[in-house]
Amino acid sequence: MTTTTYTGTDKPNYLNWKTSVASWLLTYDHKRIAILYLVSISIFFLLGGLAAAMIRMELATPKGDLLTSDVYNKMFTTHGVIMIFLFLIPSIPAVFGNFLLPLMIGARDVAFPRLNLLSWYFFMAGAACVLIALFRGGIDTGWTFYTPYSSSFAKGEVSLAIVGVFLAGFASIFTGINFLVTIHKMRAPGMTWFRLPLFVWAMYATSLIQVLGTPVVAITLLLVAVERTFRIGIFDPNLGGDPILYQHLFWFYSHPAVYIMILPAMGVISEVISAFSKRRVFGYHFVAFSSLAIAIIGFLVWGHHMFSTGQSIYAGIVFSFLTWIVAIPSAIKTFNWMATIWKGRVHWDTPMLYALGFMGLFVIGGLTGLHLAAMATNVHLTDTYFIVAHFHYVMVGGAIMGYLAALHFWWPKMTGRMYPEGWGKLAALLVFVGFNLTFFPQFILGYMGMPRRYHSYPEEWATLNVLSTAGSSVLGLGYLLPVIYLTWSLKYGKVVTERNPWGARGLEWELVDTPPDPHNFERTPIVTRPAYDYNHPEEPTGFVPKPRPVVVGGKDG
Amino acid sequence: MAGHGESHVHPVSLYTRTLWWLMALLVATVVAGYIPNVPNWLGVVIALTIAVWKATIVIMNFMHVRYSGKLAWLFAGAGFFWLLIMLAFAFADYVSRPWEPFNGWPE
Amino acid sequence: MSVQELQKTATLEHTADGHHHSDGILGEQFETLEQQNTSYLIGMWAFIVQEVLFFGAIFTAYAIYRFKYVLEFTLAHHELSVPIGTLNTFVLLFSSYTMARAVRAAMQNRHKKQAFYLFLTFLFAGVFMVNKYFEYSAKFEHHLFPGGDYSAHAVVEHAQKMGELREVEENGQKFYELGKTRDGQFTAFKRVTPQEFEQRTRLFFGFYFVMTGLHGLHVLIGMIIIGILIGRALIDHAKNKPVADFMPVEMTGLYWHLVDIVWIFLFPLLYLIGR
Amino acid sequence: MWNFPLVPPTASKEGADISLLYWAITLLAVVFGGIVLFGVIYLAVRYRADNNAVDRSNATESDLRVELAWTIIPLILALVIFGWATKLYADIYAPREGYYEVFVIGKQWMWHCQHPNGVRENNILTLPAGRLVKVSLISQDVIHAFSIPAFRVKRDAVPGRYNAMYFTPTKPGEYHLFCTEYCGTKHSEMIGKVVVLPEDEFQAWLEKGGQGLATATTSMGGGAAGGGTLTLAQQGEQTFKALGCNACHLNPNSAVKVPDITKTWGGEIKLADGRTVKGDEAYIRESILNPGAKIHAGYQNLMPPYQGQVSEEQLVQLIAYIKSLAGDSGGGK
Ligand code: HEA
Ligand code: HEA
Ligand code: CUA
Ligand SMILES: [Cu+2]
User: How many domains does chain B have?
Assistant: First the structure.
């Protein structure tokens, strides 16, 4: 490596240069905000996982014996709301997007550091509302809050939970606005659009959805809360309203939202596959544009959640058609990743294991999405465990695998410590096996017609459900392991001082200290190379740092 | 946006002219609302046309989009375009749902 | 571009804006003031996109019901006062103008003038809110707020006077006929039960309060920000600051114009159509 | 231990078609899933970093032809299946004729089914094999969904309006019936069964007024059938009188000029505003609940609205009655 590697624990980095609690809670540093998010969403993931464990335990026997039906209903609502709004939507964007975006494009911070912090506070306030709603008796509407059940029938603190989702939604909007502007305006000189790492492209597409979609669900849920209080009747047919309208508005956001969850993971996979195959991502332009295509076409397919509601058949046909179309960019990505491995030098490290796992599981999830996109089969499968299996394959098998890949890949950069590789591999294996054991049987159950959100079911489905429950404990263990060994590694892990432990390409690896300097780059870099330039190993870095402008005033006020 | 920057100061006349237009359109829309025997749908069309007109000149002149770079155009357009998509697709369901009891327009 | 060229432009940018740094205007994450200003502008526009869809979703819902219950909504429209609505539109349009002038003054670093125009904007916004207050109180008084004591009584009475609603009783059952009187002749378009009529007008007022309420909230937030800006402009004036950052004013301006645009649509959709 | 089902029974004509499509898409998924899964593993093993025995020369980084290939091939397959699935869906769910119609009302938390001849069942639906069945659905409170996995059909029961679904049971037997749209506490207990009888047994069952068989309450939560001797249309006739509809309709001495409701069902009705609508359930339902909504051309809006005065059950009866006036005893026209 050319420039000196004067990194190490002695040199101040973003973690240790200030240590007071206030310096964390009032930080404007994108890297610290990422850590704040990381800690918060990890807690929510465990909470959501606990609810999942309760669900699976109840479903181990056909009779509803462990929980009452009300408690069960509250469990899956809790599970869905926490996993979606408090974990998966903020996961990769708010943690890795925040941490990496400025590093990847050669900026000192995101465009609006204060908005970034505000976003975290909104998120925490929203989470607090949701949690209070849960402690004060819970809600049982399902994560979809369908009317008129949620607006006129459900008891409990539905409105408070809605306010929580509303606030978390604005946190997401703020993140989106911040990233859009950051990507447009904060790129280092020479960092042209087509030199951007594909993770940045994915985050750009994600941010578009966050800004264009989230306000709609925010106001729609607010209307449900208003309806609960004032009985206006917007969504209640007994008061002159139309419950289907709610579904239109809800899915206008919530379908694109599934791409908020998967696009960042796809970005991570592009980075990881390239770094561990030591090869430029095949068909860079196609992968980049397919992210945008997914984000945009993804807005036009929401009606595929409503085929059996009595939505107009003509509207249904259009929605179904566009759903088939939106599957194509995902196909493009998948095949390009495969072609990236082709003729590469594949290193089987933990992040790569997760990335390979992602490809296998996401593809199963995506392809079963096609069963649902086809109207005739959709009607049989909708609201059965087939749907549950489909979305866990894409969200857990896809998005969370991507998240774990990212966590392991950038862990040394973020913390200056390496995770224990052996444990990492074991956990990846457990997650993969446990996952399939948990959710594959659900496809079969779904095709046989087992309805979702049921807390008891006919005897003949017991065996497959037992299998699923057994699988979920393996899966739970698989998730528990990283929690333990990553925490352990913070103190006992191998210290990483070199900038680029993986020998990867990208500004964050080649020009940024490990752990990063509070100001990211010593000097603003000038980029002269495309991303993933693995073909010229003799030229170690493609970036010429330029003198840093004088800056008055420090960070963190 | 790029080039001559945002600090470009526009002549006062731009704003005054815009204001007069807005006032004229305000009067027009109120008056149009009181023309007797205008069918309901036409009233809505007139009112909305004037509203779009007013909004456009506010965006163009007060918000300086006319003098801004491509990016501002893009963002200004995106919001309204997406709103149209939502309206169009949602209405597509409602108007093609034969079983939806719709009262339609009288007169 | 070659490395040398890039470095040249970079240093040029650097020196060109050198003097700004001493003012502490330039945020640490930015390289140049130009970059900072356009970032803020694009950021504000992204926020506006968000706002458009935020309000847009209610507009969509409103459009569908207005389409569905056109007669009931028309009669409910009549309860809103066009003069007050017109006055408020006038006030808000005018405030948009003064806001634009304030931004202009800020760009010219004329702090006193800027404070003056901001103050006018604030004043107009205040008038708008006071009007809203009276308007809302009147609705509450007539039980037109869709809370516990909602009653369509006022709508019915008014519509009867206008000859657009007729109460009929048949087989001991009461219902309303909605229609129009022309040349003393009542033509019915539609017949509804009082209960239905109550529901649908209630729906209208639900929309009215949600939409204008959210809009009013935006006005209120705008007023707070404008208030702060006035203070800052006056301080800048007192300190005789030659150059100040005009971006806060510019961004508030964009926000304020958006609030105006929302009203530009609310006014005809709630007050005018169906006259 | 290994004696548990992996596929549902297929007991309707439509179900067989849908199964075929399902397995076709599954085949597609297996092929593509297989390509990706095995492809990835193969490539990752073959090109592992420490394997220097492989040829890594000419490792292109993009190629328009292959990009187009893997864009267009999936696209074509996607369009083919889209076409197939959509055609099938339209064939099944678009209005069909010549059916045996049952009305189903969902409420928290039970299914209430009514046969044309007046037999009622709760949480059990008895049907004849080999005949096209139309289920007209509505809900009294929240959204429910009527799902019969063995027939591969389901539909939401939405409050305030009718949804319909069609299917042809083929195999006599007992099948699961579920509510699949989450509807509150006892959503998972809103279940029952569908009993398919051979045509002759079904007729016998109907003539006995549905007694005997349907009283057998099952572990799945069946309910008693009943309803006695009147057909649905006859019940409708009684309701018609009870509500005083005959003061105007079907009354030669009526003071009010009324349309001939024997021609309403299946007819083309010209409205006062110039439009023409079809005389279907939705129209009749609306004409009763809110007659002013659509005025028959040539008539005055004089009929009182019955919103809030007739229950969903009575509406179902009235509709059956008005259909019977048009010569349709529950089989389409
Ligand atoms: C990360 C989240 C995520 C992602 C990425 C997806 C991706 C897709 N989803 Fe999924 N979906 C959900 C999360 C997600 N979904 C959730 C949470 C629900 C349920 C919500 C609820 O009701 O609670 C749901 C429900 C859902 C439904 C509604 C079901 C119902 O309730 O009736 C439908 C229907 O069309 C659907 C379809 C699809 C399709 C076509 C894709 C596509 O984007 C998939 C594209 C990918 C591939 C196709 C694989 C790769 C391609 C190849 C290997 C090449 C071969 C391809 C072809 C031949 C076309 N999904
Ligand atoms: C990001 C999204 C996400 C994630 C990660 C998960 C994770 C899991 N989910 Fe998911 N799930 C949803 C999103 C998600 N889910 C949504 C949106 C719904 C629909 C809700 C609705 O209908 O409204 C749903 C519904 C849902 C159902 C259907 C409920 C029903 O319809 O009745 C089931 C049933 O099996 C299920 C199971 C699981 C399991 C076993 C996991 C596992 O992956 C979880 C594993 C994690 C842990 C177990 C926690 C970590 C470990 C510990 C704390 C150790 C202790 C625990 C043990 C040793 C077991 N989920
Ligand atoms: Cu009824 Cu679920
Ligand atoms: Cu979807």
Answer: 2
